[in-house]
Amino acid sequence: MNFFKIKTSWSNAEFISIKLCMASIYILVGSYFHDFFKDYYMPLLLLFAITVIWFVFSWLKKMKASKQ
For the chain, which residues score pLDDT lower than 50? Predict the structure, then answer.
């Protein structure tokens, strides 16, 4: 399977979900040792989960459209 060789064209607006996804997990990991963000673990995990699902759905939709 040529999974990593498939090319798609993405607009800047479509990268918002992956940027939010990565930013939320970076903040979560970076704040693990600090008490300042301890109240925000659940919202950050929720944001991460939502943006992962959003990004994967957008990516699969784009892949399906490019095959047709």
Answer: none
